[in-house]
Specification:
This protein folds into five domains: 102 residues, Zinc finger, CHC2-typedomain (DNA Primase, Chain A), CATH 3.90.580; 142 residues, DNA primase, catalytic core, N-terminal domain (DNA primase DNAg catalytic core, N-terminal domain, Alpha-Beta Complex), CATH 3.90.980.10; 130 residues, Dna Topoisomerase Vi A Subunit, Chain: A, domain 2; 78 residues, no CATH class; 185 residues. The protein contains 28 helices and 18 strands. It has a five-stranded antiparallel sheet. A hairpin with a 2-residue loop joins strand 1 and strand 2. Zinc ion binds next to loops.
């Protein structure tokens, strides 16, 4: 048991933002920090950490607590272990009262599994380094064949399991571990075991015998499983085997090397993604630490989300053979779908990251990686020979590339790519837009398991030719996006062009001031939905009192209409099944592009609003025409003409806007 004095000391020393930064990339916003929530899936940050209060809170899923609660939930630690984790981080000596036998028994099964995995790792490393068999077979292979030196063996805690089916099992049983825990940790095989029946100790044997051992660690560095590579040439023996799914090891959520990579990924703001254990170790050999592998499985969405917690940028380094390229294409699409920036590097023919690193110096490797990064469009264009004159081949290439573009969640980004491709291929932009939209529809249907008729989509996202409806909520989606961005990014400073003393000057203001004062108030525009206008009024009020409201201001607002709307709007991650009808301009932007996004949103809103006003005027015109009120008709025609011109200008600006992003 940890003494109360130690607990106090640990809690007063630990800084919540430092601890959470070990697991989540945090960005400073005002006095707080924000990041992508590690407890639920999201693409825009709603996870907030307050250093002054010492708490974290997620406005998406509601997760909240102090630094100990974070470790308990995130690292699945018990209360004492969370305290010990902190003590270790801050070099605090933990005073403990002796652990009784009773307490030992109470240790959860999970902790017992973690303990025996650590025991196994130490055993395997000891065999590798200190026994004749380990040295002759394991070390010889690592040193001479893989050129992995002692420091890397230590860094990755590599090991060797003797070619004797009972070596580890017997040692573990003698050391007091029960067969039950060995089995639950995935360390032994027991073909005849039946669930809930006692295990016959004579029938169990080592899972990894005769293999070089690669321990797999979780994000905090705890060993949760193993990969084992055989050194036999026998084709009937699997080259690699991995731990099975256990209480502590879920391969779909694990990235090999993440615990050693997370700091470097955040520092360099990019993550290299490779295929196997050896590739990760190879890049470390070349001094590159921001690298992970999706070992034991092809890349999963959970793994992509784990990378996304630390960076937005991924470089995929897969083998140049057919299997590598296929896996690479799949990885690109998954990363794009998560809204990340993707580059790909292919190694020269007959090389993989491992062989390449062994043939070149660190400088050469880094130079090669920097010089040979291609963006996914370039990569696919070359792969599918899109410059071909063969129309069938060309159509196939175009479709393949659009299939990747269609996965990008951000509408603006997607349109920029489409515009680029339209220019490049000399194909009508609207054709590419329609095709992309159709692919999106199919992807969405596939994901949600709904069937849609295989027809051309009737609605284009081109804002200039949408079907107009007489709905009074014509501007709903635009307003909603605007409000959402004002709540989340209202205090972000952007640069605008404004007329000061008759001259155009660029000036820096917050997005709140820009929208509320410069765009809405200046043009005397009101939002159509009363709740939306309420928030605009509230912001104006704050600005009058010389402060810019932050996200939390709205969440904690005493008016429930405001707080509920704020939470609801900033908490939407899932695309509704009626995406096409509703979200022609759904924009979820990284904060860096907020200026462009916000200008795009306000223009879109004005365009829709103008459309509504025009509709009303035209209806009025009909009425006057019937009444044969010539004077009113003439006046209205003039007004309509003026409004039409403004609408054309806005549409023009909307199109230009997309070009400059
Ligand atoms: Zn959350």
């Amino acid at each position: 048991m940890i003494t109360p004095y130690s607990i106090d000391k640990i809690l007063s020393t630990a800084k919540i933002e430092e601890v959470i930064s070990d697991f989540v990339a945090l960005k400073k916003r005002g006095v707080n920090y924000v990041g992508l929530c590690p407890f639920h899936n999201e693409k825009t940050p709603s996870f907030s950490v307050s250093p002054t209060k010492g708490i974290y809170k997620c406005f998406g899923c509601g997760a909240s607590g102090n630094v100990v609660k974070f470790l308990m939930d995130h690292e699945k630690l018990s209360y004492p272990d969370a305290l010990k984790w902190l003590a270790k981080k801050y070099n605090i000596v933990v005073e403990e009262v002796e652990e009784t036998e009773e307490l030992k028994k109470e240790k959860s099964e999970r902790e017992k599994i973690l303990e025996v995995l650590q025991f196994a790792q130490k055993y395997f490393t000891n065999i590798l380094l200190n026994t004749p068999e380990g040295k002759e077979v394991g070390l010889n292979y690592l040193y001479n064949k893989r050129k992995i030196d002692f420091s890397l063996i230590q860094k990755f805690q590599l090991g060797f399991s003797p070619n004797n089916k009972r070596a580890f099992t017997d040692f573990a049983l003698q050391s007091g571990y029960s067969p039950d825990i060995l089995l639950k940790a995935g360390l032994i095989n027991c073909p005849d075991c039946e669930e809930n029946k006692p295990i016959n100790v004579h029938k169990i044997y080592d899972k990894f015998f005769g293999r070089v051992i690669f321990p797999i660690a979780d994000i905090s560095g705890k060993v949760i499983g193993f990969g084992g590579r055989t050194l036999m040439d026998d084709k009937s023996v699997a080259k690699y085997i991995n731990s099975p799914q256990t209480q502590v090891y879920d391969k779909s959520k694990t990235l090999y090397g993440i615990h050693l990579a997370k700091k470097a990924i955040m520092q360099k703001d990019v993550c290299y993604l490779v295929e196997g254990y050896a590739d990760v170790i190879s890049l470390h050999k070349a001094g590159i630490e921001n690298v992970v592998a999706s070992s034991g499985t092809s890349l999963t969405t959970e793994q992509v989300k784990l990378i996304h917690r630390f960076t937005n940028n991924v470089v995929v380094l897969y083998d140049g053979d057919a299997a590598g390229i296929k896996a690479g294409i799949r990885a690109i699409d998954m990363l794009l779908e998560e809204g990340m920036n993707v580059k790909i590097v292919l190694f020269p023919e007959n090389d993989d990251p491992d062989s390449f690193v062994n043939k070149h110096s660190s400088e050469e490797v880094i130079h090669y990686l920097n010089q040979n990064q291609k963006d996914f469009i370039q990569f696919k264009k070359e792969l599918y020979h899109s410059e071909t004159q063969n129309p069938l081949e060309k159509a196939k290439a175009i479709e393949e590339i659009l299939t990747s573009v269609a996965r990008i969640p951000n509408d603006i980004q997607r349109r920029v790519y489409i515009q680029y491709l339209a220019n490049d291929w000399k194909i009508e932009e609207s054709t590419l837009l329609r095709t992309t939209q159709k692919i999106r529809q199919q992807l969405y249907a596939k994901k949600e398991n709904i069937s849609i008729p295989d027809t051309e989509p009737t609605i284009s996202i081109d804002t200039s030719n949408e079907a107009t409806t007489s709905s009074t909520h014509l501007t709903f989606n635009e307003e909603k996006e605007l409000i959402k961005h004002l709540i989340k990014y209202g205090n972000v400073i952007i640069e605008i062009e404004a007329e000061v003393d008759g001259r155009e000057q660029s000036m820096e203001i917050t997005t709140c001031e820009y929208i509320v004062l410069y765009e809405l108030k200046h043009d005397n525009l009101q939002l159509e939905i009363p709740e939306h206008q309420l928030i605009i009024d509230e912001i104006e009020n704050c600005l009058k009192n010389n402060f810019v409201p932050e996200e939390n201001y709205f969440y904690k607002h005493s008016n429930p209409t405001i707080s509920e709307l704020a939470i609801k709007y900033t908490d939407e991650h899932k695309i509704s099944p009626h995406w096409y009808e509703k979200f022609k301009i759904k924009v979820t932007e990284p904060i860096e592009n907020i200026g462009d996004t916000i200008r795009y949103l306000i223009l879109s809103f004005k365009e829709k609003k103008l459309r509504k006003i025009l509709q009303e005027k035209r209806e009025l015109l009909k009425k006057y025409e019937q009444e044969k009120n010539e004077e009113k008709v003439q006046q209205l025609l003039k007004e309509i003409n003026l409004l039409e011109n403004t609408k054309i200008q806005i549409n023009q600006r909307l199109r230009n806007r997309i070009l400059v992003i």
